[in-house]
Design a protein that fits this description.
Catalytic activity: Hydrolysis of DNA containing ring-opened 7-methylguanine residues, releasing 2,6-diamino-4-hydroxy-5-(N-methyl)formamidopyrimidine
Number of strands: 10
Family: Belongs to the FPG family.
Strand order of the largest sheet: 1-6-7-5
Radius of gyration: 20 Å
Keywords: DNA damage, DNA repair, DNA-binding, Endonuclease, Glycosidase, Hydrolase, Lyase, Multifunctional enzyme, Nuclease
Helix content: 10-25%
GO biological process, one term: base-excision repair
Shape: elongated
Distance between the termini: 30 Å
InterPro entries: FPG_cat (IPR012319), FPG_N (IPR035937), H2TH_FPG (IPR015886), Ribosomal_uS13-like_H2TH (IPR010979)
Structural class: alpha+beta
CATH topology of the largest domain: Helicase, Ruva Protein, domain 3
Largest sheet: 4 strands, antiparallel
Number of domains: 2
Amino acid sequence: MPEGPSILILKEKTQQFKGQKITEASCNNNAIDADLLIGKTIINFKSWGKHFLICFPEFTVRIHMMMFGTYRINEHTTKPPRLHLLFSNDTELNFYACQLQLIEQPLDEIYDWEADIMSDVWNSKKAIKKMLDEPELLACDALMDQQIFSGVGNIIKNEVLFRSRIHPLSLVSAIPNKKLKEMIDEAIKYSYEFFEQRKQGTLSKHWQAYHQKECPRNHVPFIRKDTGRSHRTSFYCEKCQKMYK
């Protein structure tokens, strides 16, 4: 599943379509009425965590890549795209295996922009308050909660917990405030590293925990286990990642 940094890269790549008028559109599962898009001009692209937002004057198309979503710019595959957009200058934008939604409300009424880990208005104090409002919340679940850390996925979760030396099954309410701030700082720092490494095609070469077999600090086997309410896989070292209870 593409994480927040990958959606920011998509936003960068699609800037060429800003201000372009759509001349042809199709949706292969009728999730949205593609005819609504024909003749419309894209006024902006936005992102909120894992959500990619194509903005028009009267509405927004939300795209969520889910687990296997992909896109093609000025090219297409042999499979019909979930959403196909052709522009007046004969350029095209295609999305595959994604979830679509038409949003007619103002985006500020739907999204808490301060919860986006890579937003200019990210709010650490608000994130800490949201976490502490759930005393039984586990560290692995806190990082994966899109209302707290929008854009964080399983790769970022694992790398951040390893860097901050926090066991994924730690209770957030038991983690010292200084350590919580360290976790947040690492989440921000690693998200931007992820962004640059993804663009360079070197992301997996830098993983210290995710899908790794051995702790690079202690040279003992990583534990691999599905954790938390999301049951997503955690990779962790029981020797250097402290369990806070």
